[in-house]
Amino acid sequence: MFTRLLVGLDGSSGAEAALTTAIDLARRFRSTIVLAVVTDIRRLEAPLFGTTAPPWTEGVPVAPAAAELGAAMDLRARKLLDAGAALVEAAGLRAETVRAAGLVDDELVRLAGQAEALVVGRRGELHGRPGSLGTVTVNVVKRAPKTVLVAGEHPSPCERPVVAFDGGDTSTHALALAARYADAVGVPLDVVHVTADRAAGEELLARAGAFLSSRNVAFETHCLEGDVVRAVADFVARERSDLLVAGAHGGRRRSWSVGSHAEKLLRATSIPVIIDR
After folding, report:
1. Which of 72, 159, 182, 197 is the 20 to 30 A CA-CA neighbour of 55?
2. Model confidence pTM above 0.90
3. CB within 8 A of 238, min separation 6: which ones?
């Protein structure tokens, strides 16, 4: 299903979680893992401004010389890639490594073309506030041309998947992806729909059930009421789901539309979330 997975490494706990999740997923599908380290050019530019850093380098230490900083970052990148590759190979999987320089989210989006899915942590090294989503993660999720798996706060076997379904194009694609995953892994799938009109909701879920039956996927459907994000998050917690699949519109815009359920579900849950285009 996923023959190549791209993982960005930056030494953060979020990146470690992403790599762990990618290795667990790759074991199931015998995937190649592409490890990427992106040198943030804002750090390389900071020394050019002397002791006064430009606004976009706020919170980033200014090195005494660009050459020294570049050499230190190259060494750190090699160590991150070597350590990551060793973990992948110890799991009996194939690793590839790639270096890039630029804005981290831009480069990860570009490199996503080398894989079928991109695996990221919830927070990077510069955005470590617990319970938050890092800026790079948010930008990658909304701009990547491929499926994005955002790792959970804790390791997860991803054997109790749930998909949010509303009958629209994006959630229909998400349902198809969730069905492929459930079939490949051999696990049942929960399908949830939130509506105030129970009769219409049951009819919609019956359509989803017919699709899953045609794919020989074991499933249960659940018609929920209330706020969409809160209802899905409560279901995930109550049923101890360990993987959420949701659809999102693609595009390179810098901000999701107001009320994006995909973004809100990411913020309201702590389990791995697959965002499907």
Report:
1. 72
2. no
3. none
